[in-house]
Amino acid sequence: MPNTIIIGSGSYLPTKIIGKDYFMDSVFYTDEGEKIEKPNEEIIQKFIEITEIENRRYLEDDEFNSDLGHRAAVAAIEDANIDQEELDYIIYASNYGEVNKDGAPNFVPSMSSRLKNKLGIKNRKTVNYDMVFGCPGWVEALILADTLIKAKKAKLILVVGSETLSRVTDPFDRNKMIFADGAGAVVVKATDEENVGIIADSSICDNQDELLYLDYAPSLKKDEDQRPLYIRMNGRKIYEYALKNVPVAVKETIEKANLDIADINKILIHQANAKMDYAMISRLYKLYGITDYDHDIAPMTIQQFGNSSVATIPTMFDLIQKGKMAPHNFKSKDNVVFASVGAGMNINALVYRFP
């Protein structure tokens, strides 16, 4: 059975940096629709203390999701040094598609087909898939790529995660300060080398009471037009769900790889909220009876890039791989965990071993 290795990576971070001053004139409302009377300076500072998000990136008005994905994909293809016409699949993870400037999602045509067109790939046998799986979408797309390769349905696959969340946030919701835009991509290839690549994975979908912890809902300001829909989070429910379930899922995946936490060199966890990420990593180690660990095990990008959903893990992977997040690095035979949680609620994790 072939294994799946990453042979190239790329990412794109929009050049527009959005700091806290951008939100000083905002008017914020509670989930109950009541205007928050606290000074914005106090609201924003409290937000930074919890999430650690100082800056985030927004795309320009004349840019679209597929533009970001295209730039990341071009970088990954160049890094892999392949002929793009030989790609068997393009898998594009996104949750809102080609969002226009009014915030309307658009998946017709699909994001993967738009990307294939922008890349200029003429091969009719290059199949395009879209992955809509919440924030864990890119990790799930990578799991799908591995499944296709192990089933000998493909040898070369482009896996992209790109999102433009700045266009689907409610102007009156404090949580809009979490979200950001960006794109990351990898090219994966089949190899006959043993014990390398994706050596274990798992996915969990809790879609009962958890279904609407992340939702698409009207503005919190009730006298605004209630027809447009925006991303809406139940932050407390998500936090409790993630802390209870993600560490267990990651531990199970590590065990599935026949490894121990001491064998893991890096944990690339979805950058959703710094407080939540720290807590999930801490709880993971406690499952192994460990309270003191090297915090460099889990690199962080959220402080400067915000939460770009499906793009956070592939972007972080690419930056580390390209030496842009020193002292973090990857070495031959390193075991790296990718893990994410998001809308659905969905959780996934995989263990990747570098050749």
UniProtKB/TrEMBL annotation:
InterPro entries: ACP_syn_III_C, ACP_syn_III_N, Thiolase-like. The keyword Thylakoid does not apply. SUPFAM superfamilies: Thiolase-like. GO terms for molecular function: 3-oxoacyl-[acyl-carrier-protein] synthase activity. Residues 129-200 form the Beta-ketoacyl-[acyl-carrier-protein] synthase III N-terminal domain. Pfam families: ACP_syn_III, ACP_syn_III_C. Keywords: Acyltransferase, Transferase. Residues 254-353 form the Beta-ketoacyl-[acyl-carrier-protein] synthase III C-terminal domain. One of its GO terms (biological process) is fatty acid biosynthetic process. Gene3D superfamilies: 3.40.47.10. This is 3-oxoacyl-[acyl-carrier-protein] synthase-3. It comes from Kaistella treverensis.
